[in-house]
């Protein structure tokens, strides 16, 4: 599949106020779904429009990228104030753009740091300003308002506009990367038949509670799945051999998700104490919350947010980071909803505060598709962070190569952005001796049928990876000798434990019948992998004494700090025992086998970098101080 390369013009403050009679199209401003959408007729001229016009950084995105790469190599970073002084769009640019928009009859509000200009008004004014016809459409189960073609801007300001969001009202949402074995907002408890360490309980040592006889799988006796690894188990396995005193002290890890659990700090403290760790010290955990939370088109859109469903994501992120970096500060940045734009706003707060030096993000879209407006804004945010010494990590997703969802192998965005580190998933055996087995996470589900295990879900889930269909391979990938078949960005970069069969035990206040109460359960997904990696990176930042900025150039130049995952030392799968109702034994038990390293996708495990686990999982070598 061909790779689409988006070109962004360089922008300076000079010359933008000069008038020009011929408008120029704004790249990628025509909705991508127009070819299969149904035009329902022109929108009412008096209908309302609310849009955001994104402005290029001063000097253009190419200059900002060069600065980010140089800063990440030298570790000479800017403060937020220095960044804004150098890279904010100039006053002349903002004035010219504002004049163009207000002159068409739109009301203008300029972002304090000149990242964008918000406009509101009616359809008539928007049509005039952007040279479009805004119509009503039906597509993909949605009724939206959108332009019938590309928007344009006067030639004098066109190079200053990198994208427009809002003319197309299609809801763009992201999803958490957790794999919890029940509806995400419902309470769940582990059944008590499980292993404390990997493989330490089998049907021979711990019979099933209802007398069900569990057969072998293809002639092999399998152990019960772990109950869920605790913080000390994960930390001792991955960080074995680390220098004394590395615990994340003095480093702040940022976590982004939609919404905010009211019980998160109490839950994390209770969980830490229960599992042998220390609770947060006073001030060690903090939050940055929006003024208000919103739901997304709850009445007329299939693309909705489930606020309570995000609480499990937040719980996993906070408890996993605290497990790996118990002395690090954690600052949680909540998005007002699960819309792309609201999660993007969390990066603005992170970058402008300049408190955190590593950011973990356990969410993303499905496939390579991302609104072009948001793609340019995302890249600007990641590069601002890099210039300031802030590193961004993203979960790569839980649907393997996404072919089952979108019809062709794809990666997920934002993990596929070249300026973030995409963290994929492994199935991991942890014993008192450490990590004793590790392979790629791709699962086939087997259930009991006539006394044997029968494959009922050929591909249930697995860590995201592969090659982007619309983002070109970055220079660091090429230099490392990784040549993608389509010239696209390769994922994952690295991997950590993610398989829910070998996942983490978390403690959370959940909604149970009749009440809400705290309980523990096992959870997985690349939502686990990203905060595990971010917690370890906090230790590397502590050892280095400074932030790191872009991580990938250093990882690809020298991946020796990562354990090459080849699939050795682990069984074919584990036996899962669950309550039928997810709560208790009143309705009985259900038995299944979840396999490891299924080969039902295009992703494969191999020596060196591979499309299923990247360079492998972080070990003590990753914690070596950067110069």
TrEMBL record:
The prosthetic group or cofactor this protein requires is: Ca(2+)
- Keywords recorded for this protein, A-Z: Calcium, Hydrolase, Metal-binding, Protease, Serine protease, Signal, Zymogen
Coiled coil located at which positions? Answer: none
What residues does the Peptidase S53 domain cover?
228-627
Mind telling me which SUPFAM superfamilies this protein's record contains? Protease propeptides/inhibitors (SSF54897), Subtilisin-like (SSF52743)
Signal peptide, first to last residue = 1-19
Q: Where is this region: Disordered?
A: 19-41
What the entry lists under CDD domains is as follows: Peptidases_S53, Pro-peptidase_S53
> What is this protein identified as?
S8/S53 family peptidase
């Amino acid at each position: 599949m061909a790779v689409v390369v988006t070109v962004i013009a360089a922008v300076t403050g000079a010359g933008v106020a000069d008038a020009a009679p011929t408008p120029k199209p704004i790249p990628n401003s025509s909705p991508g779904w127009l070819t299969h959408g149904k035009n329902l007729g022109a929108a009412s001229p008096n209908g309302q429009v609310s849009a955001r016009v994104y402005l290029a950084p001063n000097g253009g995105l190419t200059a900002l990228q060069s600065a980010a790469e140089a800063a990440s190599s030298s570790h000479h970073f800017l403060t937020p104030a220095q960044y804004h002084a150098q890279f904010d769009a100039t006053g002349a640019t903002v004035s010219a753009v504002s004049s163009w928009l207000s002159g068409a009859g739109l009301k203008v509000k300029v972002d304090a740091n000149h990242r964008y200009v918000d406009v509101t008004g009616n359809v008539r004014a928007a049509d005039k300003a952007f040279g479009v016809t805004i119509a009503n459409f039906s597509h993909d189960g949605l009724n939206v308002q959108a332009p019938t073609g590309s928007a344009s801007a006067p030639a004098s300001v066109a190079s200053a506009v990198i994208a427009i969001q809002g003319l197309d009202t299609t809801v763009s949402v992201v999803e958490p990367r957790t794999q919890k074995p029940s509806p995400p907002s419902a309470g769940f408890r582990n059944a008590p038949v499980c292993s404390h360490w990997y493989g330490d309980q089998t049907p021979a040592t711990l019979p099933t509670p209802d007398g069900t006889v569990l057969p072998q799988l293809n002639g092999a006796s399998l152990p019960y799945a772990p109950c869920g690894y605790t913080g000390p188990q994960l930390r001792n396995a991955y960080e074995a051999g680390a220098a004394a005193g590395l615990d994340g002290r003095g480093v702040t890890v940022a976590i982004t998700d939609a919404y905010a659990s009211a019980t998160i700090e109490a839950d994390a403290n209770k969980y830490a104490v229960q599992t042998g760790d220390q609770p947060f010290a006073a001030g060690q955990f903090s939050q940055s919350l929006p003024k208000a939370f919103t739901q997304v088109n709850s009445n007329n859109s299939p693309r909705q947010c489930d606020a309570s469903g995000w609480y499990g994501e937040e719980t996993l992120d906070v408890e996993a980071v605290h497990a790996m970096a118990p002395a690090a500060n954690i600052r949680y940045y909540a998005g007002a909803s699960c819309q792309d734009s609201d999660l993007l706003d969390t990066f603005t707060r992170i970058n402008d505060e300049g408190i955190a030096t590593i950011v973990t993000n356990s969410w993303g879209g499905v496939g390579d598709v991302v609104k072009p407006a948001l793609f340019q804004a995302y890249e600007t945010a990641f590069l601002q962070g890099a210039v300031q010494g802030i590193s961004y990590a993203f979960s790569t997703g839980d649907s393997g190569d996404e072919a089952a969802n979108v019809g062709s192998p794809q990666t997920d965005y934002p993990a596929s952005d070249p300026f973030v580190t995409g963290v994929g998933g492994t199935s991991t055996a942890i014993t008192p001796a450490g990590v004793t087995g590790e392979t790629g996470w791709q699962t086939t589900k087997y259930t009991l049928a006539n006394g044997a295990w029968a494959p009922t879900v050929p591909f249930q889930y697995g860590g995201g990876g592969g090659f982007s269909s619309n983002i070109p391979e970055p220079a660091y990938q090429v230099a490392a000798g990784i040549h993608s078949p389509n010239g696209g960005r390769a994922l994952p970069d690295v991997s950590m434990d993610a398989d829910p069969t070998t996942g983490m035990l978390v403690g959370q206040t959940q909604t149970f019948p009749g009440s809400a109460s705290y309980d523990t359960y096992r959870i997985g997904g690349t939502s686990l992998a990203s905060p595990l990696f971010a917690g370890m990176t906090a230790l590397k930042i502590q050892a280095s004494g400074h932030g790191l900025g872009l991580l990938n150039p250093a990882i690809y130049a020298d991946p020796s700090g990562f354990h090459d995952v080849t699939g050795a030392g682990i069984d074919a799968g584990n036996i899962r025992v669950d309550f039928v109702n997810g709560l208790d034994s009143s309705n009985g038990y259900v038995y299944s086998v979840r396999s490891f390293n299924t080969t039902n996708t295009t992703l494969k495990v191999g020596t060196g970098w591979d499309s299923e686990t990247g360079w492998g999982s972080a070990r003590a070598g990753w914690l070596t101080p950067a110069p």
